[in-house]
Specification:
- It is built from four helices and five strands.
- Helix 2 runs parallel beside helix 3.
- The protein starts with 6 loop residues before the first strand and ends with a helix.
- It is globular, with a radius of gyration of 14 Å.
- The chain is an alpha/beta fold.
């Protein structure tokens, strides 16, 4: 169960191979984002850091660090819900890197935004 607001799943061959949620507050680790945790779990589950053909589903638009992890893991597709106007970096998926991931944003955006809003409201 998620303890902090953002959640992520890595799906490969129609099965969940990794899941994660933000934990920077509880782990005192600024790199402990949902995407990173899900990618690490998926790599462990399949025994390879390259997640070729996988899809990453995430509540909130990935940040620059997480986009980099997607590239390094060779994830094929990223689907996110709510846009993050402050730190979202989905535009980097369109850059000239050696790996490209398809990106689809705004999926269940209102529901994802509500989850995030409720999480932060409960913390205040």
């Amino acid at each position: 169960m998620a303890t902090e607001q953002n959640e992520a799943l890595v799906v490969l061959d129609d099965r969940i191979v990794g899941e994660g949620w933000n934990q920077p507050l509880s782990t005192n680790d600024p790199a402990s984002h949902a995407e990173i945790a899900a990618i690490r779990a998926a790599g462990s589950a399949i025994g390879n850091y390259r997640l070729t053909g996988a899809t990453l589903y995430v509540t909130l638009e990935p940040c620059t660090m997480c986009v980099g992890a997607v590239f390094l893991a060779r994830i094929a597709r990223v689907v996110y819900g709510a846009a993050d106007p402050k730190t979202g970096a989905a535009d980097l998926f369109m850059s000239r890197h050696n790996h490209h991931a398809k990106v689809q944003g705004g999926v269940l955006a209102d529901e994802c935004a509500a989850l995030l809003k409720d999480f932060f409201a409960a913390r205040r």
